Amino acid sequence: MTDKPKSFGRKSIIASMQPRELMTQNPALAGIWTAHIITLFPQAFPGVLGESLTGKALKDGLWALDAIDLRRFGVGKHRNVDDTPAGGGAGMVLRADVVADALDHAQKTARGNWPIVYLSPRGKRFDQAMAQSWSQADGITMLCGRFEGVDERVLEDYAIQEVSLGDFVLTGGEIAAQAMIDAAVRLLPNVLGNQASTEEESFSNGLLEHPQYTKPAEWRGRAIPPVLMSGHHGEIEKWRREMSEAITQKRRPDLWRDYQAKKSK
Ligand code: SAH
After folding, report:
1. Residues 241 and 167 in one domain
2. What range does the domain containing 209 cover?
3. Nearest partner of 46 among 212, 185, 240, 195, judged by Cα
4. What CATH code is carried by the domain that includes residue 209?
5. pLDDT digits over 195-213, tens only?
6. Which pTM was predicted?
């Protein structure tokens, strides 16, 4: 086990077997949107976030990631982080004191508007509005649970917001954390090449996106809708809007109701 924090971003452009210093402690990088992830599996980060647009943005220093190993804060010779549930039952629960030490460490470099989140199936369902609001914060601290979860007292004491990826149970919070960070990071300025693409995509205007097509113009006897080939920007926009509305109405009556309510206001 290593006591060194694992960090990513500008400082890890050059591959190295040796984890480098915590990049968020570098004053030159202060001010960058940073995700502090408390996890028993820091090696799972940046994971898929290291690829493609989020990965390039990470290397370019448009955001930073600090995976904090919960094990470092464990108690005793074996650095225990969990124990059996009070009242009995299956599995193990992450200890409040251990999680609190990790949270205190994470919050040392937090500043300004900095939500603290626990990934949890009991939480509020994550959505685009949450991604939007997190991307406008200065950074975020995320606690990834494992086993049966976390001692309730630490959630209360730190007024942690519980957020769920959806109505299913994962083995740990890491995949949920990566999904949510991806959604937030792509909304940061300059992360996507084409800023306009976040304004038109699904959910940003309360609708699902229209269908997309590309070459070839005909494939297995299926042509691209002629209006898209017409060059009439007004007509194309109208068609896309109509398709968006039709798809939303059919697939997501819940979104459609909200959309209509907003429109009639
Ligand atoms: N006993 C818990 C489930 C624990 S699953 C319960 O019934 O509610 C282990 C860990 O996986 C959790 O602590 C949480 O951090 C993570 N996790 C599981 N499902 C999740 C979901 N839908 N969204 C976000 N995190 C989840």
Report:
1. no
2. 200-264
3. 185
4. 1.10.1270.20
5. 667 877 889 899 999 999 9
6. 0.89
